[in-house]
């Protein structure tokens, strides 16, 4: 008989190749044994009978805004929200803080805040912007996960979009550093030109906003970035891809041997342009929610395995920047607040479309861990890995409300949505950080370099 720090009992454990009823034993923050451990003892035990035990989500794309804009969302509320959503590791994007994460000093300042406040593990992206090519090596050596650049306007003066020469020089340097460049791929020329035309006509509706960021703007930017990657040898990761045409171009690049991965977000799979028309600014994002037929294409592509991973692109703002009373949709902040609901959303889709749960676990955990160098310790429920786990009921519904949404601002396109599942517990390295609606605020995560 062995004694462990914790045993999670009788859950349906989502393993890489199967779902199996088993106990999970944890020692020193790591998974020590999986199986029928009836003769073993845990100093603590958690009963997971009739629940599913998933690997904790690794969300590679969130926007917390600390330092400088913690009133938008900071590491404290942001990480608690992620924990409540079954996420045990997130990567924070570089653009919304002041200063933006575009040099070593800014990176270390942000990391210090994260280590003091985050209740789960986190990584940090560095930025590629005009004028900071010489900073990339220092950022890489200090531990960034990779670099992020925008091909269209960012919405923040502190973080400029990358022009073509910045992209080429930056990609060449990032390739030398053996890092990955994540790209927001929308053509700045196309989106600005179309927006100017709408403004000249005094047109500001949801349909007008969506028309200024068409599928072609995304596809053109993807094609251009792939061409530059071919020239420079830079590895790419395309964020929040929202169209079948863009996926077609990425698939073609993969077949040519380019090192490219792609994510989409749950809001593109659960919602569509009708939601933007109905809910207005709270449903505004960039790229925008697409028409229903495009949404259906994205779901089909997901089921076919054309997306490598799922991330939230959690992008919150203060209420006044998303005020539904503002009729000019171009003036509202362009981001969806919803990092807490990514895993729930994907389980809803898995139930609706009969997607195997191990495949879902790959999208939300194993694939991001593999792509970003964490697979030796995270991403799967496996002996020797970090005990990062989400315990989920598939027999209880969960309706999003102000009371159970842990973000700083209680605004979300998900508000009022009922999921056919519920996250009951989240463990980060074997420590219970979320349990039946309660956040263990004393928990602390680790900066993953």
Task: Output the keywords.
single chain; 449 residues; alpha/beta; Urease, subunit C, domain 1; TIM Barrel; 2 domains; nine-stranded mixed β-sheet; six-stranded parallel β-sheet; 13 helices; 22% strand; globular
Structural write-up:
The protein is of the alpha/beta class. It has 2 domains: 3-53 and 386-439, Urease, subunit C, domain 1 (Roll), CATH 2.30.40; 56-371, TIM Barrel. 32% of the residues lie in helices and 22% in strands. Strands 1, 2, 3, 4, 5, 15, 18, 19 and 20 form a 9-stranded mixed beta sheet that branches. Strands 9-10-11-12-13-14 form a 6-stranded parallel beta sheet. A hairpin with a 2-residue loop joins β2 (19-27) and β3. α4 (164-176) packs across α7 (215-232) and α7 (215-232) packs parallel to α8 (244-255). The protein is globular and about 75 Å long. The two termini are 37 Å apart.
Compact overview of the structure:
The protein is α/β, with parallel strands linked by helices. Helix content is 32%, strand content 22%.
CATH class of the largest domain: Alpha Beta
- Largest beta-sheet details: 9 strands, mixed
Query: What CATH architecture of the largest domain would you give?
Result: Alpha-Beta Barrel
Number of separate helices:
13
Can you tell me the number of structural domains?
2
The parts where pLDDT drops under 50 for at least 5 residues are: none
CATH H-level superfamily title of the largest domain = Metal-dependent hydrolases
Q: State the CATH topology of the largest domain.
A: TIM Barrel
Sum up the overall morphology in one term: globular
Alpha-carbon distance between the two ends: 37 Å
Helix content: 25-40%
The whole-number mean of residue pLDDT values reads 96
Count every beta strand, where a strand is a DSSP E run of 2 or more residues: 20
Indicate the structural class.
alpha/beta
- Kindly provide the radius of gyration, computed on alpha-carbon positions and rounded to a whole number of angstroms: 21 Å
Task: Work out the strand percent.
Answer: 15-25%
């Amino acid at each position: 008989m062995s004694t462990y720090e914790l045993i999670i009992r009788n859950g349906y454990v989502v393993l890489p190749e199967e779902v199996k009823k088993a106990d999970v034993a944890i020692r020193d923050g790591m998974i020590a044994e999986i199986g029928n451990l009836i003769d073993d003892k845990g100093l603590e035990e958690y009963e997971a009978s009739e629940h599913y035990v998933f690997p904790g989500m690794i969300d590679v794309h969130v926007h917390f805004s600390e330092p400088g804009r913690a009133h938008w969302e900071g590491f404290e509320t942001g990480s608690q929200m992620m924990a409540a959503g079954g996420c045990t590791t997130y990567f924070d994007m570089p653009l919304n803080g002041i200063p933006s994460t575009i040099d070593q000093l800014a990176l270390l300042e942000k990391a210090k805040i994260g280590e003091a406040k985050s209740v789960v593990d986190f990584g940090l992206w560095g930025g590629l912007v005009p004028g900071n090519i010489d900073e990339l090596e220092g950022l890489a050596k200090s531990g960034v996960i990779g670099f992020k650049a925008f091909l269209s306007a960012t919405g923040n003066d502190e973080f400029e979009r990358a022009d073509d020469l910045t992209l080429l020089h930056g990609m060449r340097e990032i390739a030398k550093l053996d890092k990955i460049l994540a790209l927001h791929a929308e053509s700045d020329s196309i989106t600005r030109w179309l927006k100017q035309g709408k403004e000249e006509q005094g047109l500001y509706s949801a349909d007008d906003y969506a028309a200024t960021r068409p599928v072609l703007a995304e596809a053109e930017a993807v094609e251009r970035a792939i061409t530059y990657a071919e020239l420079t040898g830079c590895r790419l990761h395309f964020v929040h891809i929202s169209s079948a045409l863009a996926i077609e171009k990425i698939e073609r690049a993969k077949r040519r041997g380019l090192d490219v991965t792609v994510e989409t977000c749950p809001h593109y799979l659960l919602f569509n342009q009708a939601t933007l028309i109905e809910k207005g600014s709270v449903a505004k994002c960039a790229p925008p929610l697409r028409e229903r037929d495009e949404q259906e294409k994205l779901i089909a592509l997901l089921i076919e395995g054309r997306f490598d991973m799922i991330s939230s692109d959690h992008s919150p703002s203060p209420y006044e920047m998303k005020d539904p009373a503002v009729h000019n949709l171009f003036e509202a902040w362009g981001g969806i607040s919803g990092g807490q609901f990514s895993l729930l959303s994907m389980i809803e889709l898995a139930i609706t479309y009969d997607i195997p749960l191990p495949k879902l676990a790959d999208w939300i955990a194993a694939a991001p861990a593999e792509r970003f160098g964490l697979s030796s310790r995270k991403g799967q429920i496996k002996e020797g890995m970090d005990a990062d786990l989400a315990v989920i009921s598939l027999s209880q519904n969960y309706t999003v409300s102000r009371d159970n949404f842990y973000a700083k601002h209680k605004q979300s396109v998900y508000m009022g949505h009922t999921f056919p599942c519920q996250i009951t517990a989240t463990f980060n390295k074997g420590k219970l950080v979320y349990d039946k609606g309660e956040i263990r605020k004393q928990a602390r995560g680790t900066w993953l370099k």
